[in-house]
Design a protein that fits this description.
about 150 residues; 2 domains; 5 helices; about 30% helix; elongated
Length: about 150
Amino acid sequence: MTMNKNTITGKDLVRIMSKVQIHPVTECWNWTAATDTYGCPQVKLNGTMRCCHRVLFKLFNPTADTEKLSVKPVCNNPLCVNPDHQEIRGYGHTGQPRAERKLTPEDVATIKRLLAEGSMPQHVIAEGFGVCPRTISSINTGKTWNSVQP
């Protein structure tokens, strides 16, 4: 039997899910294994490193065309691989250009929860929300958004 790069076996799925921690409140499937230099969760399938967002989204949405477009978490958690939290976007899409991106109180509450959990570096959180790392640092130290609770 010939396997292409998109074939996922039951054994692969068990291995992938062993690297996931499901957050009880947000229902994010937080990836605990390898990431690329941009913080995107990576999984090795058939000898090739693949984006875990794309792999799981395609598995649970087999008719979706994920090869030509980017799959990104809508929960703004770059390590979340929950297929229900993903959407297909054009490459380079971040919602708004970084300089124009405005955080909402809900965004800041999520950022504060992620910071408290210590599950990802500040630069990864910043990339996920389309802001500079300094913004995340200011939230973390209480210089900005001090009134918002996690």
